[in-house]
Amino acid sequence: MVIELMKSHASVRDYKEKQLTREEVSELVAAAQHAASSHFVQAYSIVWVTDPEKRKQLGELSRNAQQMEGAGAVFLMCADYNRLKHAGDMQGEAISFDHAENLIVAVTDVGLLAQNLALAAESKGYGICYIGGVRNNMEAISDLVGLPEGVFPVYGLTVGVPNESNEVKPRLPVEAILHENAYDEAKYKTLLPEYDETIQRYYQERSTNQKVATWTQQMATFLRKPRRPDLKGVLAKKGYLFK
Amino acid sequence: MVIELMKSHASVRDYKEKQLTREEVSELVAAAQHAASSHFVQAYSIVWVTDPEKRKQLGELSRNAQQMEGAGAVFLMCADYNRLKHAGDMQGEAISFDHAENLIVAVTDVGLLAQNLALAAESKGYGICYIGGVRNNMEAISDLVGLPEGVFPVYGLTVGVPNESNEVKPRLPVEAILHENAYDEAKYKTLLPEYDETIQRYYQERSTNQKVATWTQQMATFLRKPRRPDLKGVLAKKGYLFK
């Protein structure tokens, strides 16, 4: 059943009006927190944006205005070493989080938390969508919800009653993801063209937003330029110096 | 039911001998891949280590010898822009992944995949454990399983039939994680001491490995020194230059 739920996932960007209650949100967050955490640091926080004006601004800053304004709940899923700084202060220790390891730990902790939260919501019939767009204006978003040193939004997550139903997009074949004992690049020569055909057929046949495109075309176009080149500087201001 | 499954999670480090079959592993991976992926880059790979000699070496290199040798399956959960490089080559484009954004995207993609994989396994009665220890000797581990440029193990994941049953560790209270509209540091002054009491009681009362410790003590001790200071250099050699 859990596996069936996972395999039915498709992002939902259009929601009915119903807002999630505090009780529902607490239940989802409590479940999500039970994901593993590296050395139990629990290096995450969630900012639940309920204020209509803030939601409007957040939507504009993350270039997802319609989706964020229309969602049943809007969450900023944040990496957080600020709480750990408080823990250190309580014990008279200055904690360190300026190394590459700390960024990887925080982004990982947020990832495990977020996927549990997403799946818990989907198990209750809600739709969800991750929003990387919050990394477009991370400083302005930090100001909007008062994120201190050590805290930055890795992505947003919208949740709500689906007002649309999207087809599940075919993933890379398992054999392109799974290597046994040794990484095998050679197999991409046949697997990627096959996958391109699968994706092209999917885009042409799906019920809305049909287009002609392959996966390797999309990836090549998307990644030929650096993405979000300002991010390193913003993270450094947050204390993530990546030493 | 999904929420109950999440809330029952406790890491399992001692497994019965049964090995997962290829069919089972494929089913888990296929489910896991249905997690969202940033711009659909699917920037991950899994190396399933079945060779006994490699498993032994991996266990030693990641300082988890007993657990890795005894598990029903051992996975290296890898960030992967190598496959995307192949996609670019097919389209005559050189792709870029040397910015902070790319590292965050890959670690996030791996996180969502991994948590789905973990939960899918738990839904079938298996126990799981994440192993950050693979970041102790990332270069030697990369050599062991032939990870090329663009691919590094973010963590390991062991799966198997539990040979032990651990109590669920109390997480931070929801109100310490969840902020509404604005991040609120002030509340940690009361919430962290309360949580320390909860954790101290848990450590004193659990059935095995009892100890006297609080969460803030553990965090302060763990984080007063930089962790894994060599990691930035290893990531740079893999092409993750964090520009």
Would you give an account of this structure?
Chains A, B: Its EC number is 1.5.1.38. The structure is a homodimer of 243-residue chains. Chain A is α+β, with helices and mostly antiparallel strands. The first copy, chain A, folds into 2 domains: 177 residues, NADH Oxidase, CATH 3.40.109.10; 47 residues, no CATH class. Chain A has a 4-stranded antiparallel beta sheet with strand order 1-2-4-3, sandwiched between helices. The longest helix of chain A is centred in the middle third of the chain and has 24 residues. Chain A is globular, with a radius of gyration of 20 Å. The termini of chain A are far apart. The model of chain A has no long low-confidence stretch (mean pLDDT 97). Chains A and B meet through helix 1, helix 2, strand 1, helix 5 and helix 6 of A and helix 1, helix 2, strand 1, helix 5 and helix 6 of B. Strand 1 of chain A pairs parallel with strand 5 of chain B, so a sheet runs across the interface.
